[in-house]
Amino acid sequence: MTSEESLRLVLPRETERLVLRLPSPADAAIVQQAVEESFENLHRWMPWAAQMPSLEQTTVYLRQAQLSFEAGEDFAVSGYLKGTGEFVLGSGLHPRNWSVPRFEIGYWCRASRQGQGYTTETVLALTRLAFLEMKAERVEIRCDSRNLRSARVAERAGFRLEASLRSDDRATDGSLRDTLVYACLRAECSDRLRDHEAGGRALP
User: Fold this and answer.
1) Model-level pTM greater than 0.85?
2) pLDDT digit string, tens, across residues 3-39
3) Strand order in the sheet with 176-185
4) Do the domain assignments include residue 42?
């Protein structure tokens, strides 16, 4: 059994095009800009975007996310474009059961950067980190069954659709929604993990 006290995710990390960093309240203004740009889409799928957050609320969220990360309770991640520092996306590796360990990956990408592969790139990086550094046995992605863009990210990242949970939750408009459950298991990714370990390359 793995103890959460012994595991910590270390940031920053680099992917091919992004720098993944710990959320910081110092970045509230640029994160707020991305939220406002993307609100129409976020409002449909994200419970935290039921109303447009204020800059103050975004600052508070980023501070809380930073504290939770440092305490080893939850691992929210901010993705920034290499070279320019533009905020591209929010993601995270969220512990769901430390005794397994089992994690869930969540994500959203700003509207102007959607469709360019940044979210899939981040999910692949976090999945590898979950298995190699957080000793995960299972990583999940869950989304509204109508959120086709989110489902495609999970599929491109190699996650397997395990279930469609009918009337599992409430959508942001209060209606009942079905939830798709995608998962990736350590045993299914063993070859890919061995390639990274044998090559001695730094993980994204």
Assistant:
1) yes
2) 465 578 889 999 999 999 999 999 999 999 999 999 9
3) 13-14, 18-21, 75-81, 87-97, 102-109, 138-144, 176-185, 160-170
4) yes
